[in-house]
């Protein structure tokens, strides 16, 4: 089935662009804000488009509006309208629009933020909205263009792309080790205080499995935010199971048992197939890949840490 083969009056290009905005935002109100319209106008335009096409283009999902099969066909035409309008600018094409991303705290700060900064140097009208979350990939991506999750996702009607890996290691502050002593073997960590995620709220299997090397430890500070993990470890709350790319930047943290406790976890990108036809999304994905390639050693903990020289004083300070 194609939109052009359907009976009825010809769909309005303006109505198709409204559908495109709703499909990307997931909500009438968000689409209205983006287009400078009100909620009533959005609803009227969608209704007119459905009359022209002879069926529903949107259906209510658990978290907002999702495309019906007819809506997915209409989106292809809407994207064609958007591309055609983009060619009318007399200057060299410059991208604009909002990319909506759901990703973990660490990825958002260390990868996504520098990536969008790079995009905006060439395309200053492109912006990024980030929903920071540590969770499994959603079955319906409403209100976001892209999701980045830890661990291989199991999704339907979506594209999943492996972006790269990062390492988790065990760290403690120098002050904490001076007060409590440095364990000589991993076995001495039994009963020691651990800084990590809240186990009962952890929805990501890969992050839960990473606890295997710390099973005998006792939760001291638990949080859904990885930056809290880093700060609590630096403050001396206990031993932190931390991303190397965040912990290794701090000279007051010492990595322990780097050979025995070195969990590698994958970052996966999940997106709707139609999102991969948006030029702004494609440019941002390219910037994500470039950033990950540039900091691969840091992600995997393969670099000399600040303030330590080639070897840490404990013999375990490099990752």
TrEMBL record:
Keyword Oxidoreductase: no
Pfam families cross-referenced by the UniProt entry: HTH_1 (PF00126), LysR_substrate (PF03466)
Alphabetical list of InterPro entries matching this protein: LysR-type_TF_proteobact-type (IPR058163), LysR_HTH_N (IPR000847), LysR_subst-bd (IPR005119), WH-like_DNA-bd_sf (IPR036388), WH_DNA-bd_sf (IPR036390)
Start and end residues of each HTH lysR-type domain: 11-68
Keyword Cytoplasm tagged: no
A GO molecular function held by the record: sequence-specific DNA binding
GO BP term, example: DNA-templated transcription
Domain of life: Bacteria
Record keywords: DNA-binding, Transcription, Transcription regulation
Similarity comment: family membership: Belongs to the LysR transcriptional regulatory family.
Protein name: DNA-binding transcriptional LysR family regulator
């Amino acid at each position: 089935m194609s939109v052009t083969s359907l009976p009825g009056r010809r769909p309005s290009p303006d109505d198709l662009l409204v559908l495109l905005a709703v499909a990307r935002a997931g909500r009438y109100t968000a689409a209205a804000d983006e287009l400078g319209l009100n909620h009533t106008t959005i609803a009227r335009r969608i209704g007119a488009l459905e009359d022209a096409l002879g069926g529903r283009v949107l259906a209510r999902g658990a978290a907002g509006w999702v495309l019906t099969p007819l809506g997915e066909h209409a989106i292809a035409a809407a994207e064609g309208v958007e591309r055609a309008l983009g060619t009318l600018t007399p200057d060299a094409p410059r991208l604009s629009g909002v990319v909506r991303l759901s990703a973990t705290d660490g990825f958002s700060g260390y990868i996504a933020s520098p990536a969008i900064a790079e995009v905006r140097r060439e395309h200053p009208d492109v912006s990024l909205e980030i929903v920071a979350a540590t969770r499994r990939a959603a079955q319906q991506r409403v209100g976001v263009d892209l999701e980045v999750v830890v661990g291989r996702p199991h999704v339907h009607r979506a594209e999943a792309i492996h972006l790269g890996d990062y390492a988790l290691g065990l760290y403690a502050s120098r002050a904490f080790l001076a007060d409590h002593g440095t364990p000589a073997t991993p076995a001495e960590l039994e009963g020691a205080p651990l800084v990590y995620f809240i186990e009962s709220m952890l929805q990501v299997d890969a992050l839960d499995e990473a606890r295997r090397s710390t099973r005998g430890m006792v939760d001291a500070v638990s949080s859904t935010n990885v930056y809290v993990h880093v700060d609590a470890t630096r403050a001396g709350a206990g031993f932190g199971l931390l991303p190397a790319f965040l912990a290794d930047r701090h000279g007051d943290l010492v990595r322990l048992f780097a050979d025995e406790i070195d969990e590698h976890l994958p970052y996966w990108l999940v997106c709707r197939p139609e999102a991969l036809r948006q030029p702004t999304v494609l440019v941002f994905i390219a910037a994500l890949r470039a950033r990950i390639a540039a900091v691969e050693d840091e992600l995997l903990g393969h670099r000399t840490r600040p303030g330590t020289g080639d070897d840490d004083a404990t013999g375990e300070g490099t990752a």
